[in-house]
Amino acid sequence: MRSWIWRLRHVMGVPQHVPSWREQVVGSLTALAGIALVAVLGWTETLGVSPWLLTSMGATAVLVFTVPHGMLSQPWAVLGGHFFSALAGLLVLQVLGQGVLACAVAVSLSIGAMHLLRCIHPPGGATALFVVQSASTAAAGLDLLLSPVLLNVASILLAAVALNYPFAWRRYPAYLAFRHSAPAPQQLQQLLHEAPFTEKELVLALDGMDETFDVSDEQIQLLYEALSNIESSLPKLTADALEAGAFYSNGLRGEQWGVRQIVDANAADARKPQVIVKTVAGKGKGKTQLMTRLDFADWARYPVYPDASHWTRDKPEN
Known about the structure:
Blueprint: H1 2-12, H2 21-46, H3 56-66, H4 75-96, H5 100-116, H6 123-133, H7 137-140, H8 143-164, H9 174-178, H10 199-209, H11 217-232, E1 247-249, E2 258-262, E3 274-282, E4 288-292, H12 293-299, E5 302-307, E6 310-312
Helix pairs in contact: 2-3, 2-8, 3-6, 3-8, 4-5, 4-6, 4-8, 5-6
């Protein structure tokens, strides 16, 4: 039953990691204040006569106050995503009028524009849809781009910068949270380790994957650093801990990676100085060899377990 639930969560994409309650509360309260500010400024400007608050601002608030360092949340994404999507909606409205076809074309055109101009912002699709669907936009014309679109965008960006700033770990935009200044001598011992990869290498890797990620380059570097720190803190395997029939990985990357299994039935006897191991994955697959316990313990980084088409460090539950 538990295995079935886990698989369902995996298929549905339910995240295993959630932020702390503090982060959840801060995100909710800053979003409350941010939308309130956008609404007040918009109402003051238009006196309630025109659509003074875009509904897509609610989705933008989720991004800039809940995922302030994501690439989809950054100022250019917010500004360009809403502006060019609204412009796309107006163009479609002039050519096709209102209707189902116009709605579909407007959203499609807005996505193409955001891709082309590097300002992917999901709420922009909602803005394009609003422009085509709302009866009041037909008469507004290009004035719609100024108010409410640019007015709303400027208001929520101002709110995101001001309301996130008191919390150092979530300052917005991402530049304010990750910028580096020259450290004082007493701060040198507190510096992070050397970046695990260069900006050029990161660009090449992401280009090769050919996907859109809602994560900044700085976040990728920090995540890799955190994973490296965790891995370096793992307890080292000892010769006495080796188990017969178990699989072990050397923890390396690329062509050097390998998984070996202890196939000697007597390997459970810690008094035996040698074990027979077989490489079951990676470099040298299929090779069987005799190794001393100490040599194998030096080679192995941690135990792994077969799971469908891959190997995992998590021991399967019975």
